[in-house]
Amino acid sequence: MVTAIACFKTSSSSSSSSSSSFLTNLKMSLSYGSHCNVFLNLILLVITFSSCFLSEVCSSLLNTCDISQGSWVYDESYPIYDSSKCPFVGGGFDCQGNGRPDNSYLKYRWSPSGCELPRFDGQDFLKRYEGKTIMFVGDSLSHNQWRSFSCMLHAAVPNMNYTESAQRGGIFHLNFTDYKVSLVFIRNVYLVDLVVENSERILKIDTISSGDAWKKADVAIFNTWHWWLHTGRLQMWDKIQEGNMTYKDLDRVVAFEKGLTTWSKWIDQNINHQTTQVYYLGISPVHYNGTEWGSPGRRSTCANQTEPISGSVYPGGQVSGQPAVQRVLSKMTSPVYLLDVTLLSQLRKDGHPSYYTNKEHKGLDCSHWCNAGVPDTWNHLFYASTALPRHC
Length: 392
Prior knowledge:
Elements: E1 2-3, H1 12-31, H2 35-64, E2 70-74, E3 108-112, H3 122-128, E4 133-138, H4 140-156, E5 162-167, E6 171-176, E7 181-187, E8 193-197, E9 200-204, E10 219-222, H5 226-229, E11 239-242, E12 245-247, H6 252-270, E13 277-281, H7 322-330, E14 336-339, H8 342-346, H9 374-391
Parallel strand pairs: 1-14, 4-7, 4-10, 9-11, 10-13, 13-14
Antiparallel strand pairs: 2-3, 5-6, 6-7, 8-9, 11-12
């Protein structure tokens, strides 16, 4: 079961129950002899009816507003945090620290069509998730998101105490000890098994043996996509295995969907959804080909881009893996919430490190994102998914 962003519906049975309760209370109040009791009960009935009505209106707003659709608007109050004051920003994502000369890209806020996001409140999140573990599992885009969220919470309470630690296998812990909130990043670029057998690297798209660590999370946000497309020296496997069949190669989107299906079945069978909320971070796009957004010249990239694409439509169309994500998540039997960040990220050709992924300005990165920047909005959508139902 997939929800575009954690929208919690008011069920018909809940509505019927509220109506029935209203009528029952009305009959009870009219049966009382005391005028005072009648008056007090009428007041209670008005409050009950108003609460029920507001619940229905709030539910309607949540279910009709797709916060993944919208546009970017200039907002002088942004960014949410100053990257120079965040100890967790990450060298490869610290565009300002690495010498990026412009800063207007920091001033854009995502504005959904037809509704407003609640303002991000990091202290509110820390209080509500006290004693909880928030886990980010995936590739370097999950790392990007993890560092962004760390900075967002740190900016909310700059003087709170924290500890950091790292384990073998690409596992990183950040603990905000005053609130006992733990942010964990686990690097797992495929989510399925990658093993070495007889000196060959084999990507097993139908098995997961590293999932026990995921069960420790109160909230788990998963991501995979980019590494499924890599070829040449960036390709991390020599063969793909599915059951008893091995392949020298497969259509990459087909392989991705098979691997994601394995993950989805593992989640359905192994995660206790009474205690763990599961999210899937939608595909994060790249901007290496300017023809996608109408920029002249085949060599046009994210470099020297200083503003978003205007409007609510990306000229280059959807990412090839998006339909696979929708198909897989729609077949799941457990509640998994899709943080659908693809369109809003596609519109941000200006948000990548480009040449400012290091202080030497070597290499071109149109895949990752500057912190502060676009990943803050991914986390803002995550925050909204936890805050909106509470306001209802």
